[in-house]
Amino acid sequence: MSKQKLELTWVGKDKRPKLEPRILLEDPEKSYHAKQRVSENDFFDNQLIFGDNLLALKALEQEFSGKVKCVFIDPPYNTGSAFTHYDDGLEHSIWLGLMRDRLEIIKRLLSDDGSLWITIDDNECHYLKVLCDEVFGRNNFVSNLIWEKADSPRNSARQFSTDHDHILIFSKNPDWIPKKLQRTEQANSIYSNPDNDPRGPWLPGDPYANKPYSKGQYTVTGPTGRDFSPPPGRYWRISEEKLQELNTDGRIWWGPNGSARPSIKRYLSEVGDLVPRTLWSKEDVGSNRTSKNEMRLLFPGDSSFDTPKPERLIERVLNIATSPGDLVLDSFAGSGTTGAVAHKMGRRWIMVELGEHCHTHIIPRLKKVIDGEDPGGITKAVDWQGGGGFRYYRLAPSLIVEDRWGNPVINPEYNAAQLAEALCKLEGFAYAPSETRWWQQGHSSERDFLYITTKNLSAAQLQALSDEVGTEQSLLVCCSAFHGISAAAAAARWPNLTLKKIPKMVLARCEWGHDDYSLNVANLPLAESSPPAPAAKAAKSGRKSSDSRTTDMFGDGGDA
């Protein structure tokens, strides 16, 4: 019987956007850095990107594929409260498609030892799990963590008061191993030293095991002459010789009177750090109330974010998934918690956000972190003193636009350098203008280069260019036109040159002029059977409904 591959299906699954790999334009006035170095581990190349997060992920793909150690995202939960009066199932299908498109690029961005962490609630968790299985492979599913987000019941709940969210973890490769957590006082408190052992506190270990052991059936006599054998169906964990050896070394506990069954001592000084567990309590990593208090401390009187994530939650994720200096990505930046925590922990970071709170909340928050003026969150725990910086980027406009007659042309907003960088990205070249060779604007190898011009090139100009390139190198020439010779003749005459016309060379590659891949409920068709309700009217007018996460589901991003 052949095995069938089970897949998640939804309306529109086969539709995939032809994304334009935009370039990023820095706005130095919004970039920010400390006035001086605080430590040798300060990072100034962090990136805050303003724009649609799917286009931003595509923009990052060429430079950062295989370089991101940890992706933490807090996507819109698609709770459905703003969709009551819209066609049934439409929002679910769109949500799955938008998540799939983003997950596929995220997988390419992750390093071989990288991991993805996604916070989600019950509404879409299990669909998202199957979707991630398809994108990453079921073998790369690591765990489903349960985070206790609430610290009190909601008696207004119709059925159950929800106390938790899920955190789905997927790795790039199945052999990924999470880092262990530092031991806590609570974990150490179960160790004691009733016999004043000079090796310090210890914990008694069960000497018996359920699995058969070839040397596990014997009788041992304790200090008081009492004999001990394993209970029926159980076996000694170690051989008789090993038990006697441990007893001689004082590593066997026979009880305060020497008449108890033997226990093997496990010394606190000899145990390692803690393997992460799948249940994360509010006491350990904070709750929604914790994060709201953190936001109030940063922005007094501001309640823009209903469900931000506490800094201790992100701290634990980064302790498990990264080391200092590693690159962390959050493409649903929300209030900027991921970047703030990564910065304090000495990680490099990239965040993407489309909402205006990128300017009203994230930038002011990061400035406080950099200036050492953020007293909340994990600041004291990691002894954060400030330092470092970030660069602010926005997505460039579409490279191809229509002129007044509807013809596709190069966007006149692009200058020569931006055009060269954009075409390098489209052609898979690294943008690296040479200071000595005017025709070297990018390279794909040590011998393969790219030259871009909006001029029409003549045969004489192409001959001079070919002579300068030489026979040991090759050059891709992108120009508006070349005249006086056919393409076939040019290829035969100048084998070291490859000629392409712009913009014709790229017209069929992308969805040009598509700036928004978010889901705005105002754009969804109304169901004919029922009139708009207040929640729908709020969505159409741009106001937040009862669930603020659903108004612009993939535009405003999460609340991390």
UniProtKB/TrEMBL annotation:
Domain DNA methylase N-4/N-6, residue spans: 68-360
Keyword S-adenosyl-L-methionine: yes
Keywords linked to the UniProt accession: Methyltransferase, S-adenosyl-L-methionine, Transferase
InterPro entries named in the record: DNA_methylase_N4/N6, DNA_methylase_N6_adenine_CS, N4/N6-MTase_EcoPI_Mod-like, SAM-dependent_MTases_sf
Catalytic activity: a 2'-deoxyadenosine in DNA + S-adenosyl-L-methionine = an N(6)-methyl-2'-deoxyadenosine in DNA + S-adenosyl-L-homocysteine + H(+)
A Pfam entry, by short name: N6_N4_Mtase
Ranges of biased composition (kind: Low complexity): 527-539
Region Disordered: start-end pairs: 189-208, 527-560
Domain of life: Bacteria
GO biological process, one term: methylation
GO MF annotation terms: DNA binding; N-methyltransferase activity; site-specific DNA-methyltransferase (adenine-specific) activity
EC number: 2.1.1.72
Family the UniProt entry places it in: Belongs to the N(4)/N(6)-methyltransferase family.
Name this polypeptide is given: site-specific DNA-methyltransferase (adenine-specific)
